[in-house]
Amino acid sequence: IQQVFKQLFYMVNAVTLNNLLLRKDVCSWSTGMQLRFNISQLEEWLRGKNLQQSGAAQTLEPLIQAAQLLQLKKKTSEDAEAICSLCTSLTTQQIVKILNLYTPVNEFEERVTVAFIRNIQAHLQERNDPPQLLMDFKYMFPVLFPFNPSSITMDSIHLPASLNLEFLNKV
């Protein structure tokens, strides 16, 4: 059950983040607030179902950071440093793409300046990120089946003659 929910939450994360990276109309402060609220609801549900140890919440980390990126100030060099230290699960390409797509929804917000985005790129140039922008939503985590040894010893097992396993010898 834990592995199923980890996979499911990964897919939710990947599809949502990919939509965020491809749609300019959703890259705003209010979307960041809505995403963060929805993620907190998912995390609360995991706690309620006692699935905290499943790793499902950790698969949402890139989406959490993207939501926070949408909500942070994006003006000064200190803001750039804060973004770089916060967004460790996002690639440089993803951070820059979100900042380029950021769209103010009211007159109190401003577009992200080109100078600020270059500042971010300068801070992140030493990162060794993969060159991909979108997440692979078809990625599958390996399924692990726990080994539960039997309390029955092999020498106490009786093999019926109808199985035709005479070639097996008890040792």
UniProtKB/TrEMBL annotation:
<dbReference type="InterPro" id="IPR002710">
    <property type="entry name" value="Dilute_dom"/>
</dbReference>
<feature type="domain" description="Dilute">
    <location>
        <begin position="1"/>
        <end position="126"/>
    </location>
</feature>
<dbReference type="GO" id="GO:0051020">
    <property type="term" value="F:GTPase binding"/>
</dbReference>
<protein>
    <submittedName>
        <fullName>MYO5B protein</fullName>
    </submittedName>
</protein>
<dbReference type="Pfam" id="PF01843">
    <property type="entry name" value="DIL"/>
</dbReference>
<dbReference type="InterPro" id="IPR052072">
    <property type="entry name" value="Vascular_dev_regulator"/>
</dbReference>
